[in-house]
């Protein structure tokens, strides 16, 4: 899809910068410029298209939809809505309170909380650019499955008493759902593109820079030996390393791409990315305001285990 861009950046590196593509610095410079432009093109396109769809699913409508579903159907619907509904760690508390107020089951709520930060239009765009349709689609399906399974397990454990008592007493009220015209939706999508670029550009540049350094300088043999798909502990270590960190999918995918190019298993790299986005330390700190440590620990354990399993499956099938 981007062969033309690859060759154009190669000409820039060789003829303008005077660097060899075989050298570490030349390879790193090419990776940085190529990935930055490629990601920006796809990112803008995918954010606009999915934001247009997202305009049909404001938070109030999401709550109303989830109120109609129970059991496993509720978990599936919550995870699917998590794909097209905006979510970041800063919105975890109000969303959680709103769902509890609407008497949405705890397991369904967590299906949404798990899937939403993992699967989004930005992550899909970069995965599509970096790995192609197959990996991007499998990643989306995997994110939904992790959310559904995680929510079901949390529901079966009956941990409602692990929600802070004051949450059940809050009444936030409901906002009327505003009906938008087509022009409004286009403007919403354009504004969302601008807002997301403002929020993520630094993460994106840092992630691509780290990926470029790995691509040009990291020893391929060592990475392949210790983090390749044949190492049975690689996925586990990747998830344990990812949980304490904080970034978003945009900052981690370029790193995952560089690691995979160096021989790290696809499942290992993507498991690291999922752990960082779904189980970030800031999100856990914010969630502590509404749920007790036992439920947080359960959430981390269930989601982390599911991500580890998914990582091994990716290593096997890809």
TrEMBL record:
InterPro entries: DUF318 (IPR005524), UPF0718_permease (IPR053166). This is Permease. Keywords: Cell membrane, Membrane, Transmembrane, Transmembrane helix. Belongs to the UPF0718 family. It is found in: Cell membrane. One of its GO terms (cellular component) is plasma membrane. It is a multi-pass membrane protein. The chain crosses the membrane at residues 12-33, 39-57, 78-100, 136-154, 200-218, 230-247, 259-281, 293-314. It holds the Pfam family ArsP_1.
